[in-house]
Amino acid sequence: MITFFPGPSKVYDRISEYLQDAFQEGVLSISHRSTAFNELSRRAIEATKAKLHIPDDYTLMYTSSSSEGWEIVAQSLIREKSLHLYSGSFGERGFQYTNYLHEGALPYVLDVNEAIPVQDLPVDDSTELIACVQNETSNGTQTSVDTIRALRDAYPQALISVDATSAMAGIATDYTAADIWHASVQKCFGMPAGLGLLVCSPRAVAKAEEIGEKRHYNSLLTILKNIEKWQTNTTPNVLGIYLLMRVMETAPDIAEVDAQLKRRAAQLYAMAEQLPHYQPLVTNHAVRSQTVVTVKTDATRLAATKDAAKAEGLLLGNGYGEWKDSTFRIANFPALLDSEVAQLVDFLTAYANRPA
Amino acid sequence: MITFFPGPSKVYDRISEYLQDAFQEGVLSISHRSTAFNELSRRAIEATKAKLHIPDDYTLMYTSSSSEGWEIVAQSLIREKSLHLYSGSFGERGFQYTNYLHEGALPYVLDVNEAIPVQDLPVDDSTELIACVQNETSNGTQTSVDTIRALRDAYPQALISVDATSAMAGIATDYTAADIWHASVQKCFGMPAGLGLLVCSPRAVAKAEEIGEKRHYNSLLTILKNIEKWQTNTTPNVLGIYLLMRVMETAPDIAEVDAQLKRRAAQLYAMAEQLPHYQPLVTNHAVRSQTVVTVKTDATRLAATKDAAKAEGLLLGNGYGEWKDSTFRIANFPALLDSEVAQLVDFLTAYANRPA
To answer: Which residues carry this modification: N6-(pyridoxal phosphate)lysine (chains A, B) (predicted)?
Structure first.
């Protein structure tokens, strides 16, 4: 079965070999306070920063999931007021997690085809942080790096926080365009679930120090103090960090990955636009995701399509939230082979065009 | 190298096979909202409850680590006042995490050879929770199940919370003697790090509902709502849950494991008592750990012993905290073979008794 489910998703075939290596090398038993761990953690972080072009002065840290990333940002980087821009379920969840901790968190809901109106946002001098979603996994929308950069330019007093869950390691981005980026490895990293990543700018680190929040086991200042020694606040998923090291040390440069995904996304959208009875959910090209392609159809056809695909060994992602009964999703993640994407395109084209 | 480091520790040899199976079976890519995940999560929980004799009406949940377990207990099960009984670094850390959130958390520090004076504790009707450590990994002390039961009997209004990090799946216990038990799988479960477990009694669940705390992504009520469907609040370590299922489905009954560990602990303590220049740190048999044996010696001999052991392929655990420079620790966890423990005993006996 080839899974196009957008996370947990297809893992790289070479993960099989890395798992055996981890066992053979004794990695599963090393102490997270040992020099052996420090060394593999350093290599994982350095390879990830190099391949993704994360600036030297940005800090890369481990979390247990992107949900923990939201919580850490809300806990340690906001005193009262933040603005949350989103069109889908995961952006909404990030807002809600923040709102539980700070009543001053403000939602700003976008239509799936609406770009962020950068100049017209309800932001004032007291807005400490603006959160957006680089790639909304639930509906396949995307915030471009130009828009993220424009947010930073328009509101220089605020930290810009980006939920990059289904984008990091798939889409090339300019990390200097924002202050916080958080993601999970079960999407574009092609790895098993159980590890999240958090990237912070020097400005974000300075803000954490200014706020001084240290009340939680996962307070950002605690994580920062440990990661200086390549370590973690709690016993981490050592195997996950080892797999990250292996995957990122062998990964192509992000520019190459990005080009491949964009080419395949163009192919998938062109297909969806040409098929009878199906269309891309997102019609505005400016906010279309490159990594999660969402296709709309009627409820009866939706169920039949998913069943027929499954019978061919192709697992389509279900729709999510309000789009549950009218869309399916196609992960266009780096671990998927071009031939697998081509096989899906062939199947869907034949299936949709077959005579009644 | 045979590692006697008390966590992350030696994993079961069969983990190698399970890792390959997980890859082959496509487990690494399944959605945590799929029926396939629900089924493996159900099996993992049912096998763990069966082998460890966790009562049917107690709820078993996943966390990312035992540190998260402390935080969840502090967040969701305490309004103001709790008492924390400990003699070592991890018990102290549990107190500190709670104290960050509640000024009403009170420490009660025990000597390493002191049993908990159950009848003489500073507990009153406003004490909502009493925390103790079943097995303190830092110094090799243990709270017996009789003492835990006595705490519950003496203070029936309080929840009893047990840090069972280096004990669960190693030591047989009566889970009805307390309300909360939390642990990690990189100790007695013989698994790679990256998964924690939390067990709650019906009383603890009722208290969580009464308090109604829902402000965090890992609030206990949120976890409980998900685990009813065998699911999790965030994307979990699916591979870890799969390994838990495989390990626990093939594990012997806890009574059998407990008997094996007690026999080996007796052997290790007898050795330490007989060796010249070495002695067990914990001399009071009533509070001696069965799973982490801590041996005291002078600083020079300590370094030499660790080096000589390493040269023989035996990795001793370092001392921890205040015992860092005067003790080494020997994990006596189920994944270690009797022959490996015997090898260590032979080495230490020969090493300590060799002519000057």
So the answer is: 187
